[in-house]
What does this fold into?
Amino acid sequence: MPPAPPTPAPVWEIIHGFRRYWALVAALDLGLFEALASGPLDAAALAEAVGVDVHRAGLLADALVAMELLTAAPDVPGAGATAESQPPPAPPAPSASSDNAAGPGRLVYNLGLVAANYLLAGGQRSMARLVREAPGPHERWPELAETLRRGAPSTRVEDDPGAFYPDLARGTAPIQRVAAAAVARELAAPRGRQALVVDLGAGAAPWALAFLDAWPDARGLAVELPEVVHVTREAAAADPVGDRLDVVAGSFHRVELPVGGADVVILGHVLRTEPRKAARRLVARAAAALRPGGTLVVADYPRPDVPSSAATTETLMALTILATTGGQGAFRAADLHNWARGAGLTPGATYMPLPGQTVLTATRPGGLSPAAAAGAAGTAGAQPVPRPGLRPLGSVFPPSDSRE
It folds into this structure.
């Protein structure tokens, strides 16, 4: 007998991914997570808070429970008392609106830990704005097949940077600030002089500001496109360390950089958006700005040598770039190492402060690099490595009940 066919579950999971995304966007648009930020609500109270009838609010909440963003439990009267002191609850009586309510009040919904940490607007790690922006312009995805044939989307994000990048920069800033802070703690500021941190394609400057926060005596230089630079300036003005950050409007390919003067140059999520030759040139420009012992920090999603489900983030990020920009979509770690060597740098430690996101470093020979200084000081830079070239920072997002 021929073997039984595989289950179609993987195909359904892909279809459900589309549905999950839009269910999450709807919950964000309705303010559903903020409605639960002060504590659990039953279906009727949640419906009133988000302005949707109880039947529809309950179905959306149920979907979010299935997505492990909310939790649900029976609404038991007197639940604060012990089980021994209370009789079993009677089934709720049908209400006059039961046909439309699908059991109002029978369940109490609460935020799950993921939603509490990442989906509340204004939280330290909030990804609420990023959810809408991370896929790029939504209208580009239905034409992906034609984009792949043509070699570029019908409209590229870079054709009108001011229409998309400001919102993306604001959306990605909170989670990138946490990741950047973890990396900055791994490196040590130079002693005896004021360090200079250069951030190319800074966006809302989460990387530059994180380094200035970790290095109290350093100064920073952030470069961003004229159409986006107002976001950089806003972020600097709102941050306590922002007075040490100089902001320059211009292309990171053309703006004047301090030759041999920077201790750290950051390329945060920009290389994959560039064509391959332009990415190589950008690495060379960044390398030329480094002083001896200075470190290039590249945060990105390198293409895995062997694709697998463990590399879902990297592979889908690459497709996002192909679908929405004229960029290469991805580069391999080996590519960056070769570009760095060609620019006179020595590849250094690799960090993974976020699942799927890799931070690669390379150092200009001479002097004492920030990573080496941190190791000499006995910090986490001296920890053993689990496999060659990888020094994970551990969890920078510990599970928390906090609803920031």
User: Anything to note?
Assistant: The first strand starts at residue 41 and ends at 42. The chain has two domains: 9-80+95-120, 133-381. The radius of gyration is 25 Å.
